[in-house]
Sequence to fold (232 residues):
Amino acid sequence: MATVLVVEDDDFVRAAIIQELAERHAVRSAGRALDALRDIAQHPPDAVVLDLGLPDLDGAEALKMVRGISDVPVIVATARDDEAEIVRLLRAGADDYLVKPFSGDHLNARLDAVLRRTRAGGRAGGPAAPAATLRVGGLALDLNRREATLDGTPLSLTRREFDLLAYLAERADRVVSRRELRTEVWRQAYGEDQTIDVHLSWLRRKLGESAASPRYLHTVRGVGVMLSAPRD
Ligand code: CA
Fold:
């Protein structure tokens, strides 16, 4: 059981979120950013769900202050389905985001993912925990032998494709920006996003899926790409 701090000023929304989470987690709540900061400082939770429309502080400001005192995973909840804003928040240290209104299942799935990443060792955005074999659904990557299988069938990947897939698998369920892929996988400060897109489409084909009906590789328009186990 994890301790989750829900920061939300709307009583109705807060009660609904708490109800969704309380079955599996110990839930605390705060209605104002400054109360949340005090709470985080005094009793560090395992994860924070942070509403961005709080009465006392702008959401991005609140996130910055949380990051100033804690490495706790933060899922931001925003009413604005605004890509520029979401990119800004992910860069400002949010681990994931939800656009309101969201379902309890969706919230729980995102929360499980950030908690899993924390327990696996590395924090999102930080160095991932070293593991010999990475598994995401039916996908398995042996990092020592540099071999990948999908549902037990070997995948024939180029060196770059393997690196790309491994990088995403280490950060499963997190949206990784093209810029991050370019600097971390391609080791280039500048370059064409097209190169990355082409590799992603090759990879997608080898995984037996398409951009139109993704299973493992999900493109989040304007933000980046995410590797996730299929839900079916
Ligand atoms: Ca609000």
Observations:
- The chain has two domains: 3-120, 133-227.
